[in-house]
Amino acid sequence: MPGMACFERASPALKEILLKLYRNEKPVELDHHLHEFGSVEYHIQSSASDPYHTYLSISTPLLSHGVLHSNGFSGYTIEMVNGICSDVVEIVEPAREGYQLTLRLDFAKIPQGKESVKMITEISTVQAVILSSQLKEMLRTVSSQDASQGMYKPIKLVYHPREPFFVIKQPTKITAVFPMRFKENSDVIIATAFFQELMDVGSSKAWAKVPPCTWSAIPPPELRGEHFEDLSTNGGFVSFDISSHHVQGKKLDKTVWSLLNFYGFVKYHVKCTRGFIQRRMRKRLESLVEVLQKASIEEDQYVKKVQGGRCVKKLVGFSKSKILRQRYDFTNKIKKLRSRIKIRGFSRFRRRWLKIPKFSSMTRYSKLD
């Protein structure tokens, strides 16, 4: 579920629960807690005494630090939540204890057929609407007239407890910085290659209109002075420069959603790349083992053919007397080879030139009695 929540605006688990409640013919008692993506919690309550109303409470991290209401959300965020199926969804004040927002869903106002699935899917996007609205509120001020000269202090945004990122407001742009952390060293290598490729592609003419991307192994200057635990990474820092034309019209929603899901996209890419490499290595190993096994089988067959095929068949065709006679003839041939080789005229040459001289000893010995 966490992996799918990164890329789908509608929570798949929340959508499934709400559809079951809506399609049940009889009212059911339900008090269900749902945790999603590490820091998001849903509380779904349904009572048999009130079959048409379901209460949905939400606890989610806060991205913005501007003017907040009592529930922790800004006026812009509340306005965006009210726009979700306004005929069906109503904000309950105050929210349930331990939650920032409670919604009352009136299933009686949801039409039958395909329209019901569409409306419940839209209701399930409430978490994405809350997060997107908070970041949209920041990005809309990228070219505001009240932007003074100089650099603003970085704003730490926590989408996931272990994956915070920073937004730095500047007069002509907003810079989003993502500290990248990975558990495995192999993931660091894959991600580093991906970031370098992302910079190369982003600098090409075909992608000149997208936010420029930069990667650095050390923190960028904009983050100097931040806490050490926020800057200690093994995957470096990825930065995106967002200009005014990146947040105009429908581009704003697309830019916001891309930033919120950048961590999830990188993890998805690293996971797929690692799986692809492992499959290729496994396939290569299997092919090498197959070649070795084939060579071993062919060698065994050849040895059996030589030892048990031609030689045995040849021996079987002879009788015992023939085998002994062949051995005797072979022995005689070896003896002939070892005998003296006769060369014509060699005896005369030996008598003339190879005579052993006779030596007379100067010392004579007498026999002792």
UniProtKB/TrEMBL annotation:
UniProt subunit comment: Component of the Arp2/3 complex.
Cellular component aspect of the GO annotation: Arp2/3 protein complex; cell projection
Predominant location: other
Gene Ontology annotations of biological process type: actin filament polymerization; Arp2/3 complex-mediated actin nucleation
Subcellular location(s) of the protein: Cell projection; Cytoplasm, Cytoskeleton
Protein's name according to its UniProt entry: Arp2/3 complex 34 kDa subunit
Family to which the UniProt record says this protein belongs: Belongs to the ARPC2 family.
Coiled-coil portions: none
Task performed by this protein: Functions as actin-binding component of the Arp2/3 complex which is involved in regulation of actin polymerization and together with an activating nucleation-promoting factor (NPF) mediates the formation of branched actin networks. Seems to contact the mother actin filament. Arp2/3 complex plays a critical role in the control of cell morphogenesis via the modulation of cell polarity development.
Species name: Nyssa sinensis
Single annotated GO MF: actin filament binding
Keyword Cytoplasm: yes
Entries under PANTHER family matching the protein: ACTIN-RELATED PROTEIN 2_3 COMPLEX SUBUNIT 2B, ARP2/3 COMPLEX 34 KDA SUBUNIT
Keyword Cytoplasm among record annotations: yes
The entry's keywords: Actin-binding, Cell projection, Cytoplasm, Cytoskeleton
